[in-house]
Amino acid sequence: MTTNDVLRVLTPLIHAHTDHIRAAPPALTTDTRLEQDLRMDSMAIVHVLEDIEDTFGLTIPDELLAGVYTVGDLMDIVRTTSETPERVA
């Protein structure tokens, strides 16, 4: 799965948890910050991670959760976790 493919799938998952932003949701890039740019709190980020697990059929290891600050971090989790052969789907 290419970077663009991952971003295309992640965009609606992320925007579903940014409905509190009054303006149109911003275009997402790898540098878009979840808390500062999208004003997501920790619970919204957890919900996005749950949606990612459901959508991609992944189990995200707990040690990856602490380092999630940007859309690029979420993309890295999808790519890294989906490439791990011992993942539990």
Structure description:
With 89 residues, the chain is mainly alpha-helical. The chain has one domain (3-20, 29-83): ACP-like (Non-ribosomal Peptide Synthetase Peptidyl Carrier Protein, Chain A), CATH 1.10.1200. It is built from four helices and no strands. The chain has helices at 3-15, 42-56, 62-65, 71-83. The relative contact order is 0.20. The mean pLDDT is 86.
Number of strands: 0
Work out the strand percent: under 5%
The CATH topology is Non-ribosomal Peptide Synthetase Peptidyl Carrier Protein, Chain A
What pattern of helices and strands is seen along the backbone?
HHHH
Radius of gyration: 12 Å
By secondary-structure content and strand pairing, the structural class works out as: mainly alpha
| Total of helices | 4
Number of domains: 1
Anisotropy-based shape: globular
Largest sheet data: none
Question: Any key phrases for this structure?
Answer:
89 residues; single chain; Non-ribosomal Peptide Synthetase Peptidyl Carrier Protein, Chain A; 0% strand; 4 helices; globular; mainly alpha
Write the layout of secondary structure elements.
Elements: H1 3-15, H2 42-56, H3 62-65, H4 71-83
Helix pairs in contact: 1-4
